[in-house]
Amino acid sequence: MQDEVKQPKSGKDEVFTTNKSGAKDFKFNSQVVSVFDDMVTRSVPFYIESQRMMTELARDIVPEGGVVYDLGCSTGTTFLNLDRVLPQSVKFVGIDNSQAMLDQCEINLKEAGVTREIELRYGDLDKGVDMSDASLVVLCLTLQFVRPLYRERLVKSIFEQMNDNGAVFLVEKVLGESSMFNRLFIDYYYDFKRRNDYSDMEIAQKREALENVLIPYKLDENRELLKAVGFRYVDVFFKWYNFTGVVAVK
Questions:
Q1: Whether pTM exceeds 0.90
Q2: Residue 236's beta-bridge partner residues?
Q3: Range 30-177+209-249 classified under CATH 3.40.50.720
Q4: Tell me, what's the pLDDT at 207?
Q5: What is the mean pLDDT of the chain?
Q6: 160-171: per-residue pLDDT in tens?
Q7: Mean pLDDT of 46-65
Q8: 23 pLDDT band (50/70/90 cuts)?
Q9: How far is CA 161 from each of CA 82, 130, 170, 180, rounded to the nearest angstrom?
Q10: What pLDDT is recorded for position 167?
């Protein structure tokens, strides 16, 4: 059996506990970074299980000497778990548009004793990404923050820079396929957040802050996007109401 999924420790998410009229757009600044791992665990259903599933899939996909790219690597949770199962010859490359996230990621990897070759660099995915010899590209709760105007271009660029038989893991918040189910799924999601001790005020303020920043697609739209750029195999490995995990192989 695998060891328990690793996750960095952080402070408790209290970013939206005070009433802020006219909330600004959500940003991954130092305040968010300091509580990010608590935030994502309490805000994303089965986040830890999704990490475990990606780790299992990666173990059977990434070859010796491969390169893993985590686009939107945040505090390094995915790398911490992949490090447990992938050969030491596999290189990690983390890219994020928040320098505060990159700094915390570097600290977390060092504290965990990760010794493999790692490159962390700043990058704005709206402007594309430069990669080479990619065996696996992880987009965990990342593509939803890329402006829709640039998403197809980004996914096409990822495909073109990947090795044959390389894979993409796409974990996303999604819209329901119909307006009826979309409303229901959102209600169930807010119930999930309440069960994790978020108040209605926190839920409402974060929703407002994310409104123009996180723009979800439908699951079928994401699948069609991956197929349209050329991926041979596309399948769903995780689904919870309005959150999904998709794996695509070149």
A1: yes
A2: 246
A3: no
A4: 93
A5: 94
A6: 999 999 999 999
A7: 97
A8: low
A9: 21, 8, 17, 39
A10: 98
Please compute the mean of the pLDDT values over residues 123-145 and round it to a whole number. Answer: 97
- Label the pairing between strands 134-140 and 67-71: parallel
Which of 142-179 are b and which e, b meaning 16 or more Cβ less than 10 Å from the residue's Cβ? bbbbbeeeebeebbebbbebbeeebbbbbbbbbbbeee
- Tokens representing 138? 């992880």
User: What value does the mean pLDDT take over residues 171-196?
Assistant: 96
